Amino acid sequence: MNKYILYVGNVIEKIASGADMVNQSNLTILNEIFNNRIFISELGNPNIYEKLFFYTGGCTKRICDDILNIIETKSISIVFLSSSLLGKLAKSIKKHYPSVIIISFCHNIEIDYAKEQIKVKGIKKLPSFLSMSYNESLLVKYSNKIIVLNQRDNELLKKYYNRVADLMCPIVCEDKYNEMKNITTPHESQFTTLFVGTSFFANVDGIQWYINNVKPYTNDKLIIVGKGMEKYKTKWENNNIEVYGFVDDLSLYYYNADVVVLPIFHGGGMKTKTAEAFMYGKCVVGTNEAFQGYDNLNDNFAIRCNDANSFISKLSELIKNNSIGKFNKYSREYFLENNTFESHYKRLNSLFNNIL
Fold first, then answer.
1. How far apart (Å, rounded) are the C-alpha atoms in residues 333 and 35?
2. Does the pLDDT value for residue 16 go beyond 80?
3. What percent of the chain has pLDDT over 70?
4. Secondary structure in 3-state letters for the chain
5. What band does 323 get if pLDDT is binned at 50, 70 and 90?
6. Stated pTM of the model
7. How confident is the model at residue 325 (pLDDT cuts 50, 70, 90)?
8. What was the pLDDT predicted at 236?
9. Do 260 and 156 form a contact (C-beta atoms < 8 A)?
10. How many CA atoms lie within 13 A of 321 on its CB side?
11. Contact 43/10 with Cβ under 8 angstroms?
12. What is the rounded average pLDDT for all residues in the chain?
């Protein structure tokens, strides 16, 4: 394999979201596959004028021009787009270099996700919906290969664009579990539940619902951690709820937790925090949305709850019996079998071997 590839997306210094984790994994694998034959073009922030012309996803007019120049001067054969919001860029690449192979990674199906945003936040999200759906439609049209996370997104791709994905790659996480840290981390004497997520609408909406409808009826300490969540500290925090923003090391919060709760009702793709919880050997109590894309689950480590009564009943049972334990071997085994870097590498490497 002697082709040159251009990766369009940011190099992740600190992981602050599930998308960051996926993008970091993809770039790491591409570096291994292509070695010194990979170039990277980072994204930026389109200005207001550019947004009026539907530049989104971090693409600007200057970045688009720079990418076309890189393709020409570096003899690029393949472009890997890290977001389905880069449709204008995909169109421009195909217009100028029709032989270049475009591979696009879709974290979710944006048109469906944008509809969810309008339902939750109202008509003010209409401009975002128009821009996202426009770019995604162009991306689907001009991409040679499309990668999605799960079967649901594959079905949505077919529903909205009459196209099926060329590859499904479930969420992967770098395996950061350390057995010694799990043993030596001081644990709370009170039963501790953990919610991890950035402050985007689906997480805020979900944990707010949980605080209102579940937490008053369970005897546990709830820890909330995620970039941007600190702005809700005054609103949410009390004797049995602690709120933290971005932290450099999430592992101590995971090691200390008895159970991870994921009351997520909106969104698309897969939830990286589900795989992350499994990686640390945690039982997850969550909604159907939290488990989208995760197959062959069972109640030993993944407990489905879609209403307040179910959450209250299941958590009360776990707290009373303390039957799960801070380390759940079933969730850890599931992660090792399904969501490791090695499994992701095999899938992507196979795709490139078939192309080249």
1. 31
2. no
3. 98
4. CCCCEEEECCCCCCCCCHHHHHHHHHHHHHHHHHCCCEEEECCCCCCHHHHHCCCCCCCCHHHHHHHHHHHHHCCCCEEEECCCCCHHHHHHHHHHCCCCEEEEECCCCHHHHHHHHHHHHCHHHHHHHHHHHHHHHHHHHHCCEEEECCHHHHHHHHHHHCCCCCEECCCCCCCCCCHHHHHHCCCCCCCEEEEECCCCHHHHHHHHHHHHHCHHHCCCEEEEECCCHHHHHHHHCECCEEEECCCCCCHHHHHHCCEEEECCCCCCCCCHHHHHHHHCCCEEEECCHHHCCCCCCCCCCEEECCCHHHHHHHHHHHHHHCCCCCCCHHHHHHHHHHCCHHHHHHHHHHHHHHHC
5. low
6. 0.77
7. confident
8. 97
9. no
10. 8
11. yes
12. 91
The structure tokens listed for 3 are 């082709």
- Band of residue 203 on the pLDDT scale cut at 50, 70, 90: very high
Token pair for 84: 């389905």
- The amino acid sitting at 180 is M
